[in-house]
Amino acid sequence: MKLSAKLVLFLTAIFANCLSYGAAPAGGSPAPLRVLLITGGCCHDYAHQKDILKKGLEERANIVVEQVHTDDKSTKPPLAILGNPDYAKGFDLVIHDECGADISDPEKVEAVLKPHRDGIPGVNLHCAMHSYRIGKPEEPVTPGTPHGLWFEYLGLQSSGHGPQKPIELHFVDAQNPLTKGMADWTTINEEHYNNVHVFDSATALARGKQAVRPDKTNDFVVAWVNEYGPKKTRVFSTTIGHNNETVADARYLDLVTRGALWATGHLKADGTAAEGYGAKGK
């Protein structure tokens, strides 16, 4: 089969990344975690958010972020990973921050999921929860069906959001290493994603309250962890992160960094990074 020039370039970048970061320097810190960040699609300023995330994560942990990005702003962005089940080869973690609500071909969704089913951890941010939808997202899924593919990986099914208004975040599992010592906070105007169904494999870490009307307040899970597939792959997700100011908020970046360290098994019980995986390799 003939590979497209785009795919060849993508695989070459992965190979170069492995050569650059595959071994720890003699007598120094462990090799950095290799993280693949996927961005692009509808409704968000991914052109800036991808760099905010890369800078924030690399400042907070011994992590190197490689990016797969498209400037396409449609609900069906032509992401370079699509159709390539080996897209995450050589990486320790994949961060899904894409927004592709109309990428609904089951074969393509299966290919996106294959690395995670094989054991590569995942972190999912904001609109990743509304991507790769097969069927009607507001209808509760039946596990094992194409409709449930992406939602089973996430551990939570969401179908939409309300207005942009502040969200009061409250951590409900204060003893979890991922949230230990973190303080509740209230966001700026943000989209609050609903919860159609929370799977038994998921554990809620934080809930958010948003007053949408004087007589109505929505209260939904906004951060959680999940064990996915036969290998019980670790998956961390948060629905927060629509606006640049939120993505750049130190509290948000701290949470996402902890999610990345937890998912890869590099977060200690007290919520700090494992030795060699903190800021500047500490």
Could you characterize the architecture of this molecule?
This protein is of the alpha/beta class and 282 residues long. The chain has one domain (5-162, 193-205, 222-281): 3-Layer(aba) Sandwich (Rossmann fold). Helices cover 24% and strands 24% of the residues. It is built from 6 helices and 11 strands. The chain has helices at 5-21, 46-60, 106-117, 149-154, 244-247, 250-263; strands spanning 33-41, 63-69, 93-99, 122-125, 156-157, 168-171, 185-186, 197-198, 202-213, 216-228, 233-238. The strands form 2 sheets. It has a 9-stranded mixed beta sheet with strand order 2-1-3-4-11-10-9-6-7, sandwiched between helices. The radius of gyration is 18 Å and the shape is globular. The relative contact order is 0.15.
Number of domains: 1
* H/E element sequence: HEHEEHEHEEEEEEEHH
Separation of termini?
A: 45 Å
What is the typical, i.e. mean, pLDDT? 92
Question: Keyphrases for this structure?
Answer:
282 residues, alpha/beta, 24% strand, globular
